[in-house]
Design goal:
It comes from Verminephrobacter eiseniae (strain EF01-2). The protein is mainly β. It is built from 2 helices and 8 strands; from the N terminus they run αββββββαββ.
Length: about 140
């Protein structure tokens, strides 16, 4: 009976889906101009609400050139990311009267949209649950 229970347990373990991996996801933000304000980053885990309804956010002091932000314990999956240089420290993306951003902005995959932000599918990337770096270039 004991052997049969162990065999049954082993079969259940082998049939169960693999446990999701979690790891650090680094966002490397390039083309930071100046030291005023901060770089705000956002991570999205679904298309619904993109790019306004984020899953996780972070911030780092603006330093000319390249800055990095690390999200820890991110499970494998499909994500998209944004970053913008909040030059006036108001925690909001400044836009003009037409709604066009006037602060430097970036999307993962350097995705761009027509007449607005890109689609999640254009900005998304696969995260395997192992340490990974995604580069975003402010424009």
């Amino acid at each position: 009976m004991h052997i049969r229970s162990n065999a049954r347990l082993a079969a259940l373990v082998l049939a169960a889906p693999a446990l999701a991996q979690a790891a650090d996801l680094t966002l490397e933000v390039k083309n930071v101009q100046g030291t005023s304000g901060q770089i705000l980053v956002a991570l999205f885990n679904k298309a619904e609400g993109f790019p306004h309804t984020y899953w996780k956010t972070g911030e780092v002091v603006a330093t000319p050139g390249v800055v990095k932000f690390v999200f820890t314990g991110i499970p494998e999956g499909t994500y998209a990311a944004t970053a913008f240089h909040d030059q006036d420290n108001n925690k909001k993306l400044r836009t003009n009267g037409l709604g066009i951003p006037t602060e430097p902005l970036a999307f993962s995959n350097n995705a761009i949209g027509r007449n607005g932000p890109p689609a999640f599918s254009d900005a998304s990337f696969k995260f395997t649950g192992t340490p990974q770096t995604v580069t975003l270039t402010l424009k």
